[in-house]
Specification:
By secondary structure, this protein is of the alpha+beta class. Helices cover 28% and strands 23% of the residues. The protein folds into 2 domains: 39 residues; 74 residues, PRC-barrel domain (SH3 type barrels, Roll). A 6-stranded mixed sheet has the order 4-3-2-1-6-5.
Amino acid sequence: MSSPHIAAAALATLLVATAPVAYAETAANSRTMAATGGETMIQPDQIRASKMIGSAVYDVQNRRIGHVKDLVLDRDGRIASVVVDVGAFLGMGGKYVAVNLRDLKTDHNRLTLDMTKEQLQQAQDYRLENRNTGAGTSTSPVHGGHLGSGR
């Protein structure tokens, strides 16, 4: 075989040998993008949970009425409740109230709720842990399953 033919044969062998690796990397990247919805960065209409937890909550009169204590996820991985800590003064006398995520408005990097502090103090107390079932005491649902599976 001549030198150009050897070079062509070596190149062909190299391409055939590396094609499965390139395909595997592409397939893995597609699965990752599919899992994240194809987005590679946070969108303007999204908020990070780590930034939301601890954020002050204001009423429509611009009075601070509490802060976000926690987010409760359902089995599908969606936010079922936003738990707001209201009424606390120096860590005493407060309580947790669950509100729907849709009831919170974001504007000017603030969370606003169309309720007064008095209305929230009258709302039912929300418990972050259920002593009877153990719910809320671990990082996964008590009855197993996978978040986002709907099962």
